[in-house]
Design a protein that fits this description.
Layout lengths: L8 E5 L4 H5 L12 H20 L8 E4 L3 H11 L9 E3 L45 H14 L4 E5 L1 H12 L3 H6 L6 E6 L2 E6 L7
Parallel strand pairs: 1-4, 2-3, 2-4
Antiparallel strand pairs: 1-5, 5-6
Helix pairs in contact: 2-3, 4-5
């Protein structure tokens, strides 16, 4: 795989919400973290601090970006609380908002038929371009994620959404479109993208070495 034009990224997905726990399509709806999600955000902050310390990096080496939705902004706030040093300002970027599922937002995954919205794990190669009514396709999302990437000028820390992490795995790591739309992005981890490769670090483990 050729070297990625993307700079180094640490990516954190927001913590769990009640809609995540219930299996509802959330998308661009502004649903808050639940108690589990807040704990995940705290643990992800500790993990990020540990990873940066392991690699002898400073938080100031990075630009910090967040999606405008409340669940990502609270996740970012909780991540940053785990550091005891001055941190760079956070840039809120609308290109980092979650993929829109249109009229299906708020619906349970199991309520919808394959012809309406196929669930992750059962999607075929056509789902990459499938656009739900009033929503976006993963191809649409990849366009704005790529636009965000072109605006980056150096190493960055990003707190955003599962759909964006899926797309980054396609763009940077080289996941196929089918694997991308069927992969389940974790909420209790930090993903490190560097030199065209991704490493997913689960929270709760020791990564000092």
């Amino acid at each position: 795989m050729p070297a990625s034009p993307w700079p180094e990224l640490y990516f954190i997905r927001h913590g769990e919400t009640d809609w995540n726990a219930e299996g509802r399509y959330q998308g661009s709806r502004d649903i808050p973290l639940n108690d589990t999600g807040r704990k995940q955000a705290d643990e992800n902050g500790k993990l990020l601090r540990q990873l940066l310390s392991r690699d002898r990096r400073q938080p100031s080496d990075f630009r910090w970006y967040v999606s405008p939705l409340g669940r990502t902004r609270e996740t970012m706030e909780r991540v940053r609380r785990q550091f005891d040093v001055a941190l760079p300002e956070v840039a809120v970027d609308r290109r980092l908002i979650e993929i829109s599922f249109g009229i299906y937002e708020g619906r349970l995954h199991k309520e919808l038929s394959h012809s309406e919205m196929t669930i992750a794990g059962e999607r075929d190669e056509h789902f990459w371009s499938y656009r739900p009514p009033e929503g976006e396709s993963y191809a649409d999302l990849a366009e704005r994620v790529s636009d965000f990437g072109r605006s980056l000028t150096g190493p960055s820390i990003v707190v955003a959404h599962g759909g964006l992490l899926r797309v980054l795995m396609h763009i940077i790591e080289g996941y196929s479109q089918v694997k991308t739309v069927n992969w389940f992005p974790p909420q209790d981890s930090v993903t490190h993208f560097i030199d065209g490769h991704a490493t997913v670090y689960p929270a709760g483990a020791s990564w000092d070495d």
